[in-house]
Amino acid sequence: MFRLRKNSGFTLMELVVVIAIISVLCALAIPGYISWLPKHKLGNGARDILAQIDEEIIRNTLGNVQSDKAGCFEDQYLSTGGQIYELISGHDRFVADLRPLLSDILVERNAALGLCCHPYDICTELIAREAGVIITDEKGNPVKALLNITDNVTWVGYANEDIKKLVEQHLREALLKYHLI
Asked: pTM for the full model?
């Protein structure tokens, strides 16, 4: 017969066993994850173009960056949701995932595009929109993507309308310069 203890909960021993199991699983998973990650970042095939676009937007938007100030932080988040969260929380002001625009250039360079944002990744756009964040495609239109697991999605996020007004024209000029739109 099964009886409930009056003070139901976990014992210290049960918690220690669970923590030990989680620790072992993490120890087994982390080496595989570390070896997987570099293969799924955007490789050297087009980083030069993205870096040039990045520098042009910073210079045209903020002017010359002061030697003791950071004009931009180069991050490759593991998820689009993480990038959008940074916009919602106010940590970031502008984020652009332009990787899908580089597919033709990468073909010319005999390189693969690698992992990109997919429609299911950008579903957090609805939450961002409710928080006042603006998410567009590379041309400034609302992102429209069929919900699937194969299409690559280019998106641009602005923390608010003022940031969009400040940055959007410079982004468009850089994308046109490099024949990406």
From this structure: 0.67
